[in-house]
Amino acid sequence: MNILLFTLILLLGAYLAGLAGSLTGLGGGVVIIPLLTLGFHVDIRYAIGAALVASIATSSGSASAYVKEGITNVRLGMFLEIATTAGAVLGAILAIYTPVNLVAILFGVMLIFSAAMTLRKKNETALLEGSKLSYALKLNSSYPGKDGAVPYNLKNIGGGFSIMTIAGVLSGLLGIGSGALKVLAMDSAMRVPFRVSTTTSNFMVGVTAAASAVVYLQRGYIDPGIAFPVIIGVLAGAFTGSKLLMRIDVKSLKVIFSIAITLIALNMIYNGIHHKF
Amino acid sequence: MEKNKKVTDYDMQQLIGQVLRFGVLTSGIVAIIGGIWYLFQSGSGVPDYRVFNGEPAGYTSLTGIIKGLKEGSAKEIIQLGVVILIATPILRIVFSLFSFILEKDKLYVVISSIVLLIILFSMFAGLKV
After folding, report:
1. Is residue A236 within 8 Å of residue A18, measured between CB atoms?
2. Which residues of A are less than 8 Å from B23 in CB distance?
3. Do B86 and A213 touch (CB under 8 A)?
4. Do the chains contact at B86 and A88, CB–CB below 8 Å?
5. Taking 90 as the threshold, does the pLDDT of residue A92 lie above it?
6. Shortest Cα distance, chain A CAs vs residue B1, angstroms
7. From CA A228, how far away is CA B75, in angstroms rounded?
8. d(CA A25, CA B52)
């Protein structure tokens, strides 16, 4: 296989990763790592670098629309980014001391968790009263609904902030956006309505990934030959996904994708345990 | 309604949206240009990523990338696209910080500054090894 063919296959793979990632809300990074390591036998460190780039591309590409529509809670995102960026820097430091096969196993576990999270019940009821801290930090807001603005209030800010720190560490260590953990922190702990939590999570992924990407770029994890088909493919895929999302029912797609991802995850864990990385 | 408040959250949202869109588009265009050139230069070579060697210094520092750009090297053009992409969310924080200053939201000026400082620390703290 020459570089031209490798690039074209990777371009197609990244396109599908971006498409699936945007339709299911998992982001582009989670598919890029298994694609590169299991599919092309690329070293997992190059794969992590590529996944970070993919995460930033999908996040920034789709966040711009949601921010403009006023669905994203910019203050909430900014406040929680303290936790995710600090966590991501810690994760990038921990990565030096973590053997690659352990990284692969952790990635597999995280993948299964993400698959389960896409299928869970969504939180759509808005709280009428928030906690004291939520008022002090000006985190309560509203989002545009069918019949005008829907106000919501938040609770358990400390709990959400803690889960966000873990999400940041895993993002820095594994190169993924940890969108699933971010949504867990916002939906389950802080009671952010579903539409706001997914878009705000997506908004935060770019900054979180950038916090560790600046380290990984200097460490030489980001290879231009892999990065360019990944950026272009993922961006194009995410764009198609955002157009399709309005028209198709993604429920069955999410089930199929979750099963596929769980199988990939088991494969990653198996290979990790047998030191094949 | 908010006439005496010159900058509102709505303005900030539009600005952030524009910054993100512009950054991603620019990065994509630069990556395509570098990528096509790269394929012309070395498309018939054999890809080898099985063993991690780390990228040479030329692709991992801004000075190295700029040096390569002057020589017209395709890989450095791609890396420039990567740098623009990574810079996009960081720029988003800088613009939010300015918006919060104009909105006179002191609490969020502090919060945005903390996030920015953490990223700058990550960039310059020499966490390379």
Report:
1. yes
2. 60
3. yes
4. no
5. yes
6. 17
7. 9
8. 31
Is there a contact between B55 and A137 if contact means CB atoms under 8 Å apart?
no
Q: What are phi and psi of B51, to 5 degrees?
A: -110, 135
Q: What is the pLDDT of residues B71-96, one digit of tens each?
A: 878 899 999 999 999 999 999 999 99
CB contact under 8 A, B122 and A42: no
- Are B119 and A210 contacting, i.e. CB atoms less than 8 angstroms apart? yes
With both helix axes pointing from N to C terminus, report the angle between A157-174 and A74-97 in degrees, rounded to the nearest 10: 40
Query: Cα separations (Å) of B101 from A12, A80, B8, B91, B110?
Result: 44, 19, 11, 15, 10
Nearest chain B residue to A2, by CA: B46
- Which chain B residue has the Cα nearest residue A137? B107
- A74 at B interface, C-beta within 8 A: yes
> What pTM value is reported for the model?
0.91
CA dist., res. A55 & res. A233, Å (int): 12
| ipTM of the complex as predicted | 0.90
